[in-house]
Amino acid sequence: MTGGRENSSPELGGTNGAAGSPMSQALSRFYVPQSTFAAAVQDPAEELKVPPGLVSIYAVCGGLWELAGEGIPQDFCLRSREIVLLPHGSAHRLKCVNSPGHAGGCSQSAGAEAEMMRFGGAGRLIRGHFAAETWGRNPFQSCLPPLVRLDGDSNIWETAGPLLDCISAEVECEREGWNAIVEQLVRLVFLLTVRSYLLQENAVSEEKNIASTGWFRAAIDPDIGPVLQMITDEPNKPWTVKALARRSNMSRSAFCERFRDVVGQPPLQYVTEHRMQKACQYLHETELAIKQIATLVGYSSVSSFSNAFKRWVGTAPATFRRSRSTATPAPDMSRSAARD
After folding, report:
1. Domain of 260?
2. Is residue 132 located within the same domain as residue 174?
């Protein structure tokens, strides 16, 4: 697993990537931390046990895999060209059930055994993990269910498939720097999965004329989306309801009502949450002084920032920063565990 505090820029990758479509703006807000991220190809001969507190993604390139744990349906199996995301950090177990005539608790279709033979009786699965607590209460947590499953018919494989092929090749060859490349590629698969799910859910909502709430719905809203982007670009500004309403060309009362209906919370509460999310990023990924961070997220003094941070996160900024060294470890990512 590579180290994670190399980027000391206050922008943490900048806000330029947020420009463009609402989806680009949405994904630019999705924080995948460097400091606790790890990825590998799972050994099909070993059962993987993942402790609570880790966000996990699994992409099945071949074979049949059984997934069990809290919030996961009984006899839940993954097949080739499926991707599963567990965004809430629940404990779970995963094992390959490709041995002839055996599929664990999975109901094995007539074509499943032929699928096993296609991969020589051995499954191939690529996985990635990062510590859930480092999301800093990311708004995507409210957008994603405990389990996201995308199959080959969701079109994600057209883009993710070549990336997964690259991951497999890097793990097999073990050229210099292979682990860092694998981690970055799995990050891309992770974001592709989130995008596919959000687009899929948005299409269903539109088809059924469902007036859903949530951060992504707000990001694509013509009235509220530009306001969210303004807050994202300049969290250090002294935002007021009046200033935000002016951006949306609405009266204060109409804006507050519209914002609450679409986002699900009052405007200034959202501003505070966004500032705290940015503060969590800075504390985890940079060595900036707490005074600098306070200024970057819109606080005129360290004491006012620290009080707000403690109310929102439950601990002081300095304590939160020290927690980086004790973050939940990812499952073994050594090269011996990465071969199938």
Report:
1. 221-325
2. yes
